[in-house]
From TrEMBL:
GO terms for cellular component: endoplasmic reticulum lumen. The gene is P4ha3. It comes from the Eukaryota. It comes from Eurystomus gularis. This is Prolyl 4-hydroxylase subunit alpha-3. The keyword Oxidoreductase applies. Keywords: Dioxygenase, Endoplasmic reticulum, Glycoprotein, Iron, Metal-binding, Oxidoreductase, Signal, TPR repeat, Vitamin C. Heterotetramer of two alpha-3 chains and two beta chains (the beta chain is the multi-functional PDI). Its EC number is 1.14.11.2. Its cofactor is L-ascorbate; Fe(2+).
Length: 489
């Protein structure tokens, strides 16, 4: 690619020199094309020299090299699935943080409503084009999600109107496309009058489109009949592309679960009776009593965090979730993960020893799972879930070491905004604290799951979130966390 750019730059410089010579023939008042020599020179340049530059062997070789270089990296470039996933991530951020679509299109992460400070102020504001907004709206449209398609297509229509008539090589859509899809979205949402007005606007730009003309006639008829909900009226409205049936709305967590200030329940240096912690006690902050949640600051060093991320990087794959007796990908968990054995590196082994010392639990196989390293990128999140199994059919029981008694989650990176761990029923959240470890018990002492540990990974608004999870099982912990005299505990 560098070789192509170097050769192409030289060719473009030749084009610039050619243009300057031709332009000089027109700008020099003394250089009249009445002069047969100048006329010949101009005609020759336009007939022979120009094709020689544009269609030269060098130009052909450069294009071939570019295509060959592109083929080499094509497999590593984002695909259609990545692009659509990024669009869904923007809609997820819009929902969870109650962001204004117009603000997002202008590069501002502002909550909907006047007078609110932005959630995140990037150092460099990046705006979305009309075509960008159209693509986000089209992704929603194609899944029957007309709530989101209306918001994003409205923004696309507004931006296309401002630039109508000007050509943009990056645009794959147009004002007509946006009006067409927006009209049908409004129709499906039950707003027939607005669908009619948008379709009429479309016909001003493309009066020969018979499909939209037929839709206009049918919209008028539905309004005359007093029909409110589009398809209930029995009319067949044709639309730009086939649309699957509507799916249930995202069951995302409430926007009210934005990061909050941690309750100040006290901090302490802890040795937990372990010789390993005598010289360097753990820095413990109690976040919540019920459920028991503690944050251990400076649990891992920057160098250790980078080592773990480096070890996991080549093995990262789309995260899966338990579904009955199987595991599969799901939209409610968007991240990539990898598993590291304690033998993968001395850093991982030292981290396992540190976790055992702080928790007082037995991490020897099979009493704990391998270290799971997770990366949450653009809009990465995990909807409300329990870490412990709620069914005996769960794959967790195949380890024959019981349910997950405890979770240790280590923050390997900082994020600029978003990414908090929100405990839904307990009504509190913990922001990302780089190099800290969050610990909580998933099970009560009687072995029952603690319902208050329902938690979610809020979408990453800005930044790159890395965590390492260590799940510890109940077998092997009988004398380390014994049952209570109270059977309800």
């Amino acid at each position: 690619l560098r070789a192509y750019l170097r050769e192409e730059s030289a060719r473009l410089r030749s084009l610039a020199r050619f243009y300057e010579k031709v332009q000089a023939l027109h700008q020099d008042p003394e250089a009249s094309v009445d002069n047969p020599l100048l006329a010949f020179s101009l005609i020759k340049r336009l007939h022979s020299d120009w094709p020689n530059i544009v269609y030269s062997d060098e130009a052909t070789e450069n294009i071939q090299e570019l295509h060959a270089g592109f083929k080499e990296v094509e497999q590593e470039l984002p695909g259609a699935e990545d692009l659509d996933g990024a669009a869904r991530a923007l809609m997820r951020l819009q929902d969870v943080y109650a962001l204004s679509v117009k603000g997002m299109a202008n590069g501002v992460f502002q909550r909907a409503g006047a007078g609110r400070p932005p959630l995140y102020s990037p150092s460099r504001r990046v705006s979305l084009s009309a075509d960008d907004c159209f693509h986000v709206g089209k992704v929603a449209y194609d899944t029957g999600d007309y709530y989101h398609s209306i918001a994003w297509l409205e923004e696309a229509v507004g931006l296309f109107r401002l630039s109508y008539g000007s050509w943009n090589p990056e645009d794959r859509s147009s004002l007509e496309d946006a009006l067409d899809h927006l009209a049908f979205s409004y129709f499906m949402a039950g707003n027939i009058s607005h669908a009619l007005s948008l379709s009429k606007e479309f016909l001003r730009y493309d009066p020969s489109n018979q499909r939209v003309a037929r839709n206009v006639a049918k919209y008028k008829k539905l309004l005359e009949m007093g029909t409110v909900v589009g398809l209930a009226g029995g009319a067949t409205i044709t639309h730009p592309a086939a649309v699957p049936s509507s799916h249930p709305p995202w069951s995302l967590f409430s926007p009210q679960l934005a990061p909050e200030h941690l309750p100040h329940l006290g901090c302490s240096y802890e040795t937990n009776g372990s010789p390993y912690l005598l010289l360097q006690p753990a820095k413990k902050e109690m976040v919540q009593i019920h459920p028991y949640v503690a944050l251990y600051h400076d649990f891992i060093s920057d160098a250790e965090a980078e080592t773990i991320k480096g070890l996991a990087g080549p093995w990262l794959q789309r995260s899966v979730v338990a579904s009955g007796e199987k595991q599969q990908k799901a939209e409610y968990r968007i991240s990539k993960s990898a598993w590291l054995k304690d033998t993968a590196d001395p850093v991982v082994q030292a981290l396992e020893q540190r976790i055992a010392a702080v928790t007082g639990l037995d991490l020897r196989p099979p009493y704990a799972e391998y270290l799971q390293v997770v990366n949450y990128g653009l809009g990465g999140h995990y909807e409300p879930h329990f870490d412990h199994a709620t069914s005996r059919k769960s794959p967790l029981y195949r380890m024959k070491s019981g349910n997950r008694i405890a979770t240790v989650m280590i923050y390997l990176s900082a994020v600029e905004a978003g990414g908090s761990t929100a405990f839904i029923y307990a009504n509190f959240s913990v922001p990302v604290v780089k190099n800290a470890a969050l610990f909580w018990w998933n099970l009560r002492r009687n072995g029952d799951g603690d319902g208050d540990t329902l938690h979610a990974g809020c979408p990453v608004l800005a930044g790159d979130k890395w965590v390492a999870n260590k799940w510890i099982h109940e077998h092997g912990q009988e004398f380390r966390r014994p049952c209570s005299a109270d059977p309800q505990d």
